[in-house]
């Protein structure tokens, strides 16, 4: 972890309502610069709704959030310029080649042609994509698509990258490889904000929050949470927490 005294995400009483339903109920937390922060919870807990507010694509009903030094409500475009985002649903274009996708998204991120060419070569070499660079993304296995999507989200060297269920549907070996990519970026000082419902992945995070029905019910390091609940795995923490709430 790096620069842990510097808060790069600050959330205060963040709330999101849809009619009479409150999806996110006044949550409070912060994320330190260079931290891998796990945003955990079962499907439907409110994780994705909260993330959409943090990346500036959904306005809070109440409360405030500051991301990379910018207010999500009044400076959403600045927020978007300083973050990377990998959505739960695969976001590359299946009918474009690997290289064409990199070029396209590099242009969206405002990179020059020279920067795009340079970063494309580095990315293809790093991910060992040389043999498939001219293949259409739609023809690639899911694991390769996920790794490519993550790398493209990092093209413009954002301060923070938001990953929404990035390893959903891939095998355990590919999941581990994906986390190696995350570690490499965090080592460079990038802040990683990752949502997942795989509780074993919480072990890879510096700190985790656990969200239940729109509320953050626990937040600490995996080690401290396991000690607090007197269990040996994060999955047991989650199960015990759910039983306590019931």
Task: Describe the fold and architecture.
This protein is an alpha/beta fold. It has one domain (7-217): Rossmann fold (3-Layer(aba) Sandwich), CATH 3.40.50. It is 35% helix and 26% strand. It has eight helices and ten strands. It has helices spanning 47-54, 76-81, 98-108, 113-126, 142-153, 172-187, 222-229, 234-245, and strands spanning 7-18, 21-32, 36-40, 62-67, 70-71, 83-86, 160-164, 191-196, 207-212, 215-220. The strands form two sheets. Strands 6-7-8-3-9-10 form a six-stranded mixed β-sheet, sandwiched between helices. A hairpin with a 2-residue loop joins strand 1 and strand 2. The longest helix has 16 residues, at 172-187. It is globular, with a radius of gyration of 18 Å. The mean pLDDT is 90.
Task: Write a concise keyword list for the protein shown above.
about 250 residues; Rossmann fold; six-stranded mixed beta sheet; four-stranded antiparallel beta sheet
């Amino acid at each position: 972890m790096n620069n842990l005294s510097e808060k790069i995400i600050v959330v205060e009483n963040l709330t999101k309502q849809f009619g009479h339903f409150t999806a996110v109920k006044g949550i409070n937390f912060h994320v330190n610069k260079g931290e891998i922060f796990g945003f955990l919870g079962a499907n439907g807990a409110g994780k994705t709704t909260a993330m959409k507010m943090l990346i500036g694509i959904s306005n809070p009903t109440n409360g405030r959030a500051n991301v990379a030094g910018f207010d999500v409500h009044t400076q959403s475009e600045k927020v978007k310029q300083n973050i990377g985002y990998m959505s739960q649903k695969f976001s590359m274009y299946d009918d474009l080649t690997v290289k064409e996708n990199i070029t396209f998204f590099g242009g969206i991120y405002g990179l020059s042609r020279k920067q795009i060419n340079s970063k494309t070569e580095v990315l293809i070499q790093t991910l060992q994509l040389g043999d498939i660079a001219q293949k259409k993304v739609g023809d690639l296995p899911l694991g390769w698509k996920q790794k490519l999507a993550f790398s493209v989200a990092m093209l413009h060297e954002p301060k923070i990258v938001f990953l929404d269920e990035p390893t959903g549907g891939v095998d355990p070996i590919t999941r581990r490889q994906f986390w190696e990519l995350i570690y490499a970026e965090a080592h460079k000082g990038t802040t990683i904000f990752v949502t997942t419902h795989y509780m074993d992945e919480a072990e890879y995070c510096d700190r985790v929050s656990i969200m239940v029905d729109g509320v953050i019910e626990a937040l600490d390091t995996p080690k401290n949470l396991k000690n607090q609940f007197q269990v040996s795995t994060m999955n047991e923490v989650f199960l015990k927490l759910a039983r306590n709430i019931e």
